[in-house]
């Protein structure tokens, strides 16, 4: 069965926020979501209004990012993106090394 293409929702507000706050471009966030080793899970503390999820993954240029996203109208909307902290990078690298 073919894999369903991930669709993203971008607007000027979230694109400019990601760049101004953390120098993350939309294509980098999309690459993280396609990382086969990405660590994904629910973000329960921040899911009061809508379900939110977090992911740690690597871009094609080996930048490891932490994202928070939600699903709206069947599309992925990235709410937050930043470089991982040292502890998060260690968790990601341990996962890769164990597979």
Poorly predicted regions are none
Q: Work out the helix count.
A: 3
- Give the spatial strand order of the biggest sheet: 1-2-3-4
The total count of strands amounts to: 4
Radius of gyration: 13 Å
Q: Provide the domain count.
A: 1
Mean pLDDT across the residues is 91
Percentage of residues in helical conformation: 25-40%
Report the span from N to C terminus: 24 Å
The ordered H/E elements are HHEEEEH
Q: State which percent range the strand residues make up.
A: 25-35%
Q: Rough shape?
A: globular
Structural class: alpha+beta
Describe this structure in words.
The protein is of the alpha+beta class and 99 residues long. It has one domain (12-98). Helices cover 33% and strands 29% of the residues. It contains three helices and four strands; from the N terminus they run H-H-E-E-E-E-H. The protein has helices at residues 12-22, 26-34, 86-98; strands at 39-42, 52-58, 64-72, 75-83. It has a four-stranded antiparallel beta sheet. The model has no long low-confidence stretch (mean pLDDT 91).
């Amino acid at each position: 069965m073919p894999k369903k293409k991930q669709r993203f929702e971008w607007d000027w507000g979230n694109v400019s926020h990601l760049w101004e706050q953390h120098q993350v471009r939309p294509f980098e966030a999309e690459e993280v979501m396609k990382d086969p080793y990405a660590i994904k899970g629910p973000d329960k503390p921040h899911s009061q209004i809508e379900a939110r999820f977090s992911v740690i993954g690597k871009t094609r240029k080996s930048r490891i990012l932490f994202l928070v996203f939600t699903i709206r109208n069947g599309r992925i909307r990235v709410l937050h993106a930043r470089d991982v902290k040292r502890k998060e990078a260690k968790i990601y690298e341990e996962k890769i090394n164990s597979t």
